[in-house]
Glycogen debranching enzyme GlgX
Amino acid sequence: MEPWPGHWTPLGATYDPEATNFALWAPEAEQVEVCLFDEDDTETRLVLPNRTFDIWHGSVPGVRAGQRYGFRVHGPWDPEKGHRFNPAKLLTDPYALAVDGALTAHAAIYGHVRPSLDTGGDHRVRDDRDSAPYVPKSVVVDVHPFDWRGDAPPRVPWAETVLYETHVRGFTMRHPDVPEELRGTYAGLAHPAAIEYLTSLGITTVELMPVHQYVSEPDFLHRGSLNYWGYNTLAFFAPHNAYSSSGTRGQQVDEFKAMVRALHQAGLEVILDVVYNHTAEQGDGGPTLSYRGIANEAYYHVDPADRSRYLDYTGTGNTFRVAHPAVLGLVMDSLRYWVSEMHVDGFRFDLASALARSMHDVDMLGSFMTVIGQDPVLREVKLIAEPWDVGPGGYQVGEFPHLWTEWNDRYRDSVRDHWRGAAAGVRDLAFRLSGSSDLYADDRRRPYASINYVTAHDGFTMRDLVSYDRKHNEANGEQNRDGTNDNRSWNHGIEGIAGDADEALRELRVRQIKNMLTTMLLSTGVPMLLSGDELGRTQRGNNNAYCQDNEISWIDWSLAADHPELLEHVRRLLRFRRAHPVVRQRRFFEGVPVVDGGRKDIAWFAPSGAEMTEAEWHDGALRTLGMYLNGEGIRSRGVRGEPILDESFLLYVHAGAEDVDVRLPGRFWARSYEVVLDTADAGADGRHRPAARVRLTGRSCLLLRVIDRPRDG
């Protein structure tokens, strides 16, 4: 089976019925072997015969779709110079479209001497034990035409987007209406029962936690744990094989496509949480699985003072060197593949600041940001940054370019602090409610640059946020050292969900969840709901459930019966948001009348019924704020240039423990006010006159509709 010369492009394994072409970029290598594995794991090694532009290539006749393979790359072992070639280690193809198998915790997976997973070893001394029995294998995929059935992206405008962060496995593992054999899979998420729930909820966009092929860290496996979240990528083109119900020899590709097609048919977008900032190879003492053994110094930021070590801006041991042209090409090829071939609608970039680092500093004018902005495919999809990393200068909230939106942790912290009574007044909350103009307006960005969230996969669920003062991560096996201590949470007097046995405490906690959901879903910007918060999901105080592939992380669908008021509250809020463009602004408020003599586009009211004074804005003890949204003051226009008109609304957010009387704004602002929603009374209704006194229950939100809007005093 002598390889033919083949071609240097495209990279990876390109199937053809006559012969499959293999191509690997390895500029410093001295020889590259493609290794084929039969069903009993017998290995056949073939030397790739040609080298063009630093790419080793050859075409192997008779190789069929589903064939498992890997690479062995020969070259110098010289860690002090950044070289870690070791042909004893079978390497995953960086361009593999599918991966079969899982990682086994064995000392042979390391490229260096490590006698066991418990004791040390020297990462500068090469280990020559064969790793092939213990590592996943790349799979040759026949990229045949998929029947997309006329699939088209929903293209939901940013201003109308509602994100729903969820996990492919955790969403369906306990769903009673999803067949057991489909639970935890792409097909399970595509099941009509799952889709019906998502559409009935009212979200527009599903944001999936990582689905690129990942592996668990060997130390986790050794202690009987695993990586559940998936932020440990091995292959950037391959759908994670454990989420496939149909097979792992390429079938996972079609199953993923079918999932996207089903979600699109329901009008739902699909966004992927992607991890290009680091890989599963960890630090300089980590396993050799792919990139380290192919072109270590190109793929990773190495320490110029000691090239055997990595610069770690991610907290995982390594940082992917996206500024290198070939590595940037890999990332861009991967992103385009997921859009063009897999039909996804956008990406949330984990630790995105690390991707913008050229050499050491974060550079928003660097190659990654520039290429993304110029790419005709990627500039048309949704781009979300987690706008920080763990390195110096990595916190970049408000600094990403125009095409990007950002997870706004300032929003998260402000809302949490307000509702736990720890905020220094209401000034910061007003910025968050109105789109965070302090962060985004000066760069001429739009309000939807802010992804407004209170909870995410990383941290407490919303129920735990109101039930725990402290993290309880003992189940993770790290003596509760992992996870943040800065939760900005409040247990309301009793630690843990056991406190819900007290009916008054349970009612208060549910109201606080409603308060935070109301605040988020009525704020200008793009709301992101954590999957299960609408049901009252708990992780029992675990704020770092990365390794919990069990009931701690999976959605408990029986909660829908236990907390029906929460689910209905979210559905009601999302119906309201969808119906009213006044809470979906595409331009920042200006705080001035739209027409001479008219009302301001937004106005802020103190409990007295008067507009907030400068002194009140700086009153650290103030816990009550009224926000007036003028439906006739929407500054953006419709698609044909027509004015966008809506009703006007008045929202009160009151975080004080005691009930408070507020005076409603006077006749200039409304002829009367009608109750739309009260988090303290689900059945509240009625009307109030201008300047009337209205009692707000301690720790509650009140939303009022403006009736008979006047144009003058």
In short: Residues 196 and 629 are 33 Å apart (CA to CA). The first strand starts at residue 12 and ends at 14.
